[in-house]
Design a protein that fits this description.
With 132 residues, the protein is mostly helical. The protein has one domain (2-130). Helices cover 70% and strands 0% of the residues. The protein is built from 6 helices and no strands. The two termini are 21 Å apart. The relative contact order is 0.17.
């Protein structure tokens, strides 16, 4: 059942994150105190956000090689990584799946980006499993 929770969490955050994803209901099925279900859901979301980060990084590489044109101001280059460090904690909220994409585009290190995503997702699923 943990594998199904992992897959449901990953697929629900693939393109458009769904507010009431299947992993939330799987957490209810396991009961309120299942740490394994929370871990499976967090791992599923972190894996799919790693894919989003990779797509952003690939777009940045294409831009740097001149294959596509994306105009960036120097101010945006300096502000974006700081803002993204905070925004990655909220990948669970609304259309938060875009933040890992931008983190990859603005060259944020993958381990840092995934750690911030994991902290935010763990908070969301823990609150969902234990207190809602």
């Amino acid at each position: 059942m943990y594998a199904q929770t992992f897959i449901d969490a990953a697929l629900s955050g693939f393109v458009l994150p769904l507010r009431a994803d299947a992993a939330f209901f799987a957490l209810r099925e396991f009961g309120r105190m299942s740490v394994g279900a929370v871990a499976a859901a967090v791992l599923g979301r972190v894996c799919i956000h790693a894919l989003h980060w990779g797509m952003g990084r690939a777009l940045r590489v294409m831009r740097d090689r001149g294959k596509i044109y994306v105009r960036l101001t120097p101010k945006l280059e300096t502000i974006a990584p700081r803002v993204l460090a905070f925004a990655l904690l909220f990948t669970w909220w609304g259309l938060g799946a875009v933040w890992p994409f931008f983190a990859g585009f603005f060259r944020m290190k993958l381990p840092l980006a995934l750690a911030l995503v994991a902290i935010g997702q763990a908070g969301y699923y823990t609150v969902s499993a234990y207190w809602l």
